[in-house]
TrEMBL record, chains A, B, C, D:
Residues 7-119, 148-267 form the VOC domain. This is Metapyrocatechase. Belongs to the extradiol ring-cleavage dioxygenase family. It catalyses: catechol + O2 = (2Z,4E)-2-hydroxy-6-oxohexa-2,4-dienoate + H(+). Its EC number is 1.13.11.2. Its cofactor is Fe(2+). Pfam families: Diox-like_N, Glyoxalase.
């Protein structure tokens, strides 16, 4: 099967106060507000070509509302619609949403709401479409300014089943697994067309759990700069600057003001994976070093704190 | 149409002396010799999962023999076989080659030999498949050591036609074009599944011309380190350390001992492109800055020196 | 003799239009205007603790007016006053200048006006003096923002004589020399207390010539960022991003709007030199690689274009 | 008073097993063995010009034996001899030591043995003295390879007294203080000629305590690379990759196999300090952020674990 999903397109995340959230997401993280509509705000990074990649929704708790994966072409949405039917997965067709056309919406075994869509407005990034400079000049010096959303890590009460669903029905492929004593995957890092370490990762935990969503950061220096900004803004750092053994990515885990964990994920040593290559295996003995390479063990909050 | 081509898989390049070539490609560039077979040598970068990505062939001139693009899945080879038939493009089926299975081989309008294949041995990169460290410990400090092959730039007497062929028949998509006064693309940067700035680029020039092939380098510091190594080894630098406006990539153009141009292409500010987004346009007036962002004009050798 | 000079404290440079100059020096280079007084403007970098480090003076030609070297302690000014007397070098005592106390002013053999001073207002850098963050938050993203002035390269009709003067009278010490066939230094890189590659360098050329003055930049990534900013502002780049063999420094030569050459000098691989260590020697054969390590020869403008 | 001390020249550190120590210091840290003499080994970094900068001595406990500060000129040793006399500080004259001439040896109030010397063999760094490349080609890829020793942090039962001694008798100057409620310095970062954030720092603790000694690392990427190497060699990381608020330095604390703490100190955002500028002040409330900028509090081991 060819690649029919391009990448993680958007996440909708709950926040307790939309004003405070916008202050954080725009002034500290450096996202740009596309529009505020009722209790929702649509945002995007400076290099995002699509209409938006983050939706914040005011609510009485934090956590994930839904995640959208964008297909490579319009007909790929129909392809997955058929596939869901074939696997008898209930789904809704959502004819349109903010600046977006048709999506199919369904629940994966871990309880998370996923959407698959192609049609969304493409206003382009913050550079001209003709003869652009390499970056926009009006960025804030003291904001993190990631160029693009990168991936999402979710928790599942039955991760083996959720992983299998994502692989079989949604055609994700694995770059890395943590396997249990029986050799079964209990955590997985899953990729689509970009062949990067992950678009989606799944670890054990409660249903509907959002462990973190991540933005790309390109260099070790940028990671340090981001960490500086977090301190200057009293942002709670959960872990890092550090490195993962799994994905090789360097980065920082931190929390938005409501406890949603975000990562700046530095791909500077991350890899491209080849279809057909065997996934990398980590065991319960080595997974500590896999997740937190420098600490060589799980940081306490990793399995216990998420939204 | 979904993505059926994963990436540029290998290039076969002619060298005048295989011993000298191996000295350069292994000791300076830091590729690893897989095997020398007759007048050919098969090499790969340390993070290459597939059997090889560079083939050197002793010959009486420099230049490109062929380029191989690997598909996402086995059946994608059949798909392109049908497509070539449909477009009445002559092709050969090559049942097998060194550590590789079936490929279809054909000539594109610019005269270059392309192969499309899926089946190749996948011995993995230079790290263990279980609980690996992020990089192999035995790399040479004074070699460039790029992790992977990245892209190829070729010349075409009728670039508009060659671009159209690559887009229609091979299903490349464009990130950027240089257009002439009539708005026709005379140069193109074309991507496949990875959605990176390019897997293949085409500029005007003579048929079968190899402008350069490129390896990924991840940071500005690594680019400087690579340039240092070039001087220490009397490698001729053609351009750089510099930056392209087109692709935003930072890098260096340099020559192997036989005049084949190679690039270390630093993706640290390069982008990911979204299917459906309009290609970036450069004109004949702005293309100088597009190709060489800091010089803001074409370096003399750019259009005149290649193999 | 101990170290009595701390570093290059300020340069006064002529510009043809002070308004245009301030636009360039503040918006592109990212210096901060301390005050404009008549036809002069006093500026400083964000991490400068002293009152100012650059003085721009509106004039009908470009070039250097004077350079000030700050001593380690007040009595060191008297020490050099005695030394000048002893060597029968004419000097003036300048009792005060803008935000500065006493200086001694004299002409070195190459015709340049030097000042030695200690007493200057020390308002501190742009961070609080108590519990500061590592950098100020209100910097412009699209300015170069060097933290501090670094060194100055001047030309001398009789460089051997000027070098000897600076060593004997001003107690500079050499890190590196270019020597002629007779082994005489015809160019020198000279340091003071910081023991960095240079505070002052001297090459052959016309009297009073200012080859360039330089600001520190800390990483290869920052050098690339600086080069990007130069293109975005139509700043003429003379050379770079590149590296010097001499000093090992990485950097860029560029021109202010009036032809004064400036360098962003990236010390990331520069060294600290030990008193008593023999200077590094370059010859007329190797000096091309010494000055421009990647080009391995003098760029044409190096010996011909300066103010 | 001018600068009469150039920098921290060497530290002598106790190790429990010299073979194991040499394996760590040469293969992991990347120092070079100058010579092993009896129960001592003399080592240096690749860019060290002097004969050695680290002495390892086999002993039955870890910790500091002595630290040597090198003067700017020979007569500065006599100067400090007189000064010690004047302050009635007992001292020994050590006429010679390994590859070194005369030193004066004395005990500072915190019980540490200091030496002041000028005369030491200067074989130069690992590059030729004529027309050198910027770095030596034969470094190990998987060693940390710092270019030079940087500073030392020691503990004192009466830090205020020890700080005062270092300032008055040894003519160190302060860049930063932590002050107690009465405004008295209880910790200090002290510099000499280089005007860098510190050559010596003093914090409260037991007498003769060695908190850490540090080597310079130039970029955020190099810090990450160093941390990778520590994991690959099962080196215990105490803290980092992180950043200090005090000194602004980025770095890693880690332990040699015997518990001596070492730092790779990344000066990429560190500053140069101007004589006469007021030291930066931190209070007992802000010192947590001062020492560990990202954690914003003292890591538990900081005050309790040292040799």
């Amino acid at each position: 099967m060819p690649f029919r999903i391009s990448r993680l397109g958007y996440v909708e995340v709950k926040v307790l106060d939309l004003d405070d959230a916008l202050d954080f997401y725009t002034n500290v993280l450096g996202l740009h507000l596309v529009e505020r509509v009722g209790n929702k705000a649509y945002l995007k990074t400076w290099d995002e070509q699509l209409a938006y990649s983050v939706i914040l929704t005011e609510s009485d708790s934090a956590g994930l509302v839904r995640a959208g994966f964008r297909t490579v072409d319009p007909e790929d949405v129909d392809y997955f619609e058929k596939k869901l039917k074939q696997y008898e997965v209930p789904y809704e067709v959502i004819p349109e949403d903010y600046k977006r056309g048709k999506a199919i919406r369904f629940t994966i075994p871990s309880g998370h709401t996923f959407e698959i869509y192609y049609d969304i407005e493409i206003p382009g990034n913050f550079l001209p479409k003709e003869s652009p400079d390499p970056w926009p000049r009006n960025l804030k010096y003291d904001a993190i300014n990631p160029p693009k959303i990168d991936h999402m890590l979710i928790t599942a009460p039955d991760p083996t089943k959720t992983i299998k669903f994502c692989e079989e029905v949604l055609e994700f492929r694995a770059t890395e697994y943590i396997v249990n004593g029986e050799g079964q995957p209990v955590a997985a890092w899953l990729y689509q067309a970009r062949q990067q370490p992950h678009d989606l990762a799944i670890i054990p935990g409660r249903e509907k759990g959002l462990h973190h969503f991540a933005f790309h950061i390109s260099s070790a220096q940028d990671i340090y700069h981001a960490a500086d900004i977090m301190v200057m803004n009293d942002v709670k750092i959960d872990w890092g600057p550090g490195r993962h053994g799994i994905t090789r990515g360097a980065g920082i885990y931190f929390f938005d003001p409501f406890g949603n964990r975000i990562e700046t994920f530095g791909g500077y040593t991350a890899y491209l994976f080849d279809p057909g290559a065997k996934p990398i295996i980590w065991t319960e003995e080595t997974m500590g070093r896999g997740v937190f390479y420098y600490e060589r063990k799980l940081v306490e909050t990793f399995l216990t704190v998420y939204t």
